[in-house]
Write a structure and sequence with these properties.
Blueprint lengths: L2 H4 L4 H7 L26 H8 L14 H14 L3 E5 L2 H12 L5 E5 L4 H13 L3 E5 L4 H7 L4 E7 L11 H10 L3 E5 L4 H4 L9 E5 L13 E5 L1 H15 L5 H12 L1 H20 L4 E5 L9 H7 L6 E6 L2 H11 L4 E2 L9 E3 L11 H7 L5 E5 L5 H13 L4
Helix pairs in contact: 4-11, 5-10, 14-16
This protein binds ligand LCS.
């Protein structure tokens, strides 16, 4: 099928068929793993022309590889962007975007609730390089606006945010960033393009930890950047070439395989998460549940506006604080006590001491990552088995 025809199909169909059809060389229906570091030139002249950018062609897998290109093309398609660049991890995607668009002496405005690794990159590594990061509560547009000055290049948000599922108004953030001549970068890891397409709301660039729902099976680390061709090509030819954080062909193949089932997995994650969020919100030992699909979520209306589903991530607070959380996490039998998320298996973890342990005590308190907060990445198991597991573990938590 021609690409123009495929573009008119629904998201689920594009996920299955979008990687470009049979391999042009072998007719293999699935994109082969081009497990080669280098590519032979037909002549010295051809090699020189490819290097000079006068002719298309593969050179070296750090600069491009057909398996990676298939993954990039499909991700650009699904996010509705012009182009995409695959990276070794989600962290490599974020670092590559920032170092493509920024230099020392400039500043970045960032949501105060982000994956702990991103927060640490901003606070520690970027500040060592002379890039200042200004934390804001991105649910308050006036606070975001006030943080900008003439040297602000990027507004960086995660929505829904890790771990407290804060929803940030993408269209509003794009308007503020653009008024100041800055770019809006959205980490779309939690929602995936199946449930949210930030570029449609005015974001300039989307980043993903493809390790999570895109791969979906907990067996791959990867990342991707989607955005305008000009920025993506600059990121590929300058930043990624120099930093070297390229994805491996085998991992690109696993991510392509993951994409085929993204819609069915997301629907099951989301269905299970809604049931579990409802169950938890009526449980006497639970004081708070964070899930954007619940009407009690403070930004539920906004979630309905910019998302088409709410995803598989839940956070909840236990009345008994840290000790109650530890007992719960040590008592579950089916769920696995582990970081990461977006896997088919359900994972449970403690943000304050694990994924967000890079936050200072004051920062944790400010953004509501309490000692009693537990995060669930709800898998695709039978939801009744998951609720039974939580129920037996919660019985062991003192009232
Ligand atoms: N963005 C978000 C929203 C994430 O949750 C993570 C990792 C990253 C970026 C970084 O991606 P990576 O380099 O790991 O592919 N989040 C993790 C978490 O919550 N637990 O373990 C990793």
């Amino acid at each position: 099928m021609k690409e123009s025809e495929l573009r008119k199909m629904s998201f689920a169909t594009i996920c299955v068929h979008g990687s470009g059809g049979p391999d042009p060389y072998t007719r293999a229906l699935n994109v082969p793993i081009y497990q080669s570091s280098t590519f032979a030139f037909r002549s010295a002249r051809e090699g020189a022309e490819i290097f000079a950018g006068e002719r298309e062609g593969y050179v070296y897998t750090r600069l491009g590889n057909p398996t990676l290109v298939a993954f990039e093309r499909e991700m650009a398609f699904l996010e509705g962007g012009e182009a995409a660049l695959a990276t070794a991890s989600g962290m490599a995607a974020t670092t590559t975007v920032i170092l493509t668009l920024m230099r020392s002496g400039e500043n970045l405005v960032a949501s105060d609730t982000l994956y702990g690794g991103t927060h640490e990159l901003f606070r520690h590594t970027l500040s060592k390089m002379g890039i200042e990061v200004r934390d804001v509560d991105a649910t308050k547009p006036e606070e975001v606006e006030a943080a900008f000055d003439a040297n602000t290049r990027i507004l960086f948000i995660e929505t829904p945010s890790n771990p407290t599922l804060k929803i940030i108004d993408i269209a509003k953030m794009a308007e503020i960033a653009h008024r100041h001549g800055a770019k809006l970068v959205v980490d779309n890891t939690f929602a995936t393009p199946y449930y949210q397409r930030p570029l449609q709301f005015g974001a300039d660039i989307v980043v993903h930890s493809a390790t999570k729902y895109i791969g979906g099976h907990g067996d791959t680390i990867g990342g991707v950047i989607v955005g305008p061709k000009e920025i993506i090509e600059k990121a590929r030819r300058e930043t990624l070439r120099d930093l070297g954080g390229c994805l491996s062909p085998f991992n690109a193949w696993l991510l392509l395989r993951g994409l085929k089932t993204l819609p069915v997995r997301m629907e099951r994650h989301s269905w299970n998460a809604m049931r579990i969020a409802q169950y938890l919100s009526f449980h006497p030992k639970v004081s708070k549940v964070y899930y954007p699909g619940l009407r009690i979520h403070p930004q539920h209306e906004l979630a309905v506006k910019q998302m088409t589903g709410f995803g598989g991530m839940i956070a909840f607070e236990l009345k008994g604080g840290r000790r109650a959380g530890e007992i719960l996490m040590d008592s579950v039998k089916l769920m696995t006590l582990a970081v990461s998320l977006g896997d088919v298996d359900t994972l449970i973890e403690h943000p304050a001491s694990m994924t967000h342990s890079t936050y200072t005590r004051e920062e944790l308190e400010k953004v509501g990552i309490t000692e009693g907060l537990v995060r669930l990445s709800v898998g695709i198991e039978d939801v009744n088995d998951l609720i039974n597991d939580l129920s037996q573990a919660l019985k062991k938590v003192p009232a």
